[in-house]
Amino acid sequence: MKKIVFFVLLSILYQANAQIDFQVVDKDFSKVNIGNIHTGHNEIIFSFDDGPVPGVTDKVLDILKEHNIKATFFVIGKNVLAHPELMKRIVDEGHIVGNHSMSHIPLKNLDSIAWKDIVKTEVMDAHKTIMPYLANNRHFFFRAPYSDWNKIFADFLNENEIGKQYIGPILWDIGGEMEIKDGKYLQSADWACWSKKISIDDCMSGYLYEAGKRKGGVVLMHDLRHQSAELLAKLIPELEDRGFSFSTMNDVDWK
Ligand SMILES: [Zn+2]
Asked: Which of 104, 155, 157, 253 could form a disulfide with 145 if both were Cys (CB 3.0 to 4.6 A apart)?
């Protein structure tokens, strides 16, 4: 009996360790935002920012599961603390978690003295918050809120043992902004579609056009509004029809 208890304990311990035992390469924070990430491969890498948000993240997870697609969720630390059940689902269903700061404040025009504390809080406190949910990550990923970044942040964070193992700040290839020419959507950004009351089909046509033009890449979406989940449900079959396959941030050949 004692032996059985010992082995059960051992396997629980092993699993607990396995949760945080992922491969980390010695990359570091970049002085500038990293763009042009994975185009030209006819592969789509979905990324969802600003969650987790109840009622939206769950729908996004349902859709991804239905199509057996893994994505990256760039979560906000405060939302992580508020919704651990959604975070557990994200990691249990095989997705990757990225750091999108603690409270999503713009990291610009920061006070010349206070900036270090702010950057440390926003990036490293968020890291501690997402730590229990990184089981599927091969790397630590960061995306800056509003893509605000400064090379002095990179120098400062790379002095930190964990900070210097981060890849980021990471942008996206598809979904950054709206571009409409002669009534044709050449690019779409989900948040802008919904604020401009653009239909899901029109919004999707911009994503599809840009995906075709760039031959795939990292797609930016937000798990903030239900329309984005509806867009995703329609977008995936359209991308499949056009011959795209789906990969993850783990598969990118990071320089
Ligand atoms: Zn954001």
From this structure: 104
Q: How many angstroms separate the alpha carbon of residue 74 from the centre of ligand 1?
A: 8
Ligand 1 centroid – CA 223 distance (Å): 10
Domain ranges of the chain: 2-251
Q: Does domain 2-251 have CATH number 3.30.450.20?
A: no
Could you list the pLDDT tens digit for every one of the 255 residues in the chain?
Answer: 455 444 444 444 444 444 444 555 567 999 999 999 999 999 999 999 999 999 999 999 999 999 999 999 999 999 999 999 999 999 999 999 999 999 999 999 999 899 999 999 999 999 999 999 999 999 999 999 999 999 999 999 999 999 999 999 999 999 999 999 999 999 999 999 999 999 999 999 999 999 999 999 999 999 999 999 999 999 999 999 999 999 999 999 887
Neighbour-count burial of 146, counting CB atoms closer than 10 A to its CB (0-12 exposed, 13-18 middle, 19+ buried): exposed
Quote the CA–CA distance of 254 and 137 in Å, as a whole number: 14
Task: Please state the length of the chain.
Answer: 255
Q: How far is the CA of 9 from the centre of ligand 1 (A)?
A: 40
Instruction: Give the chain's largest Cα–Cα span.
Output: 76
The DSSP 8-state label assigned to residue 125 in this structure reads I
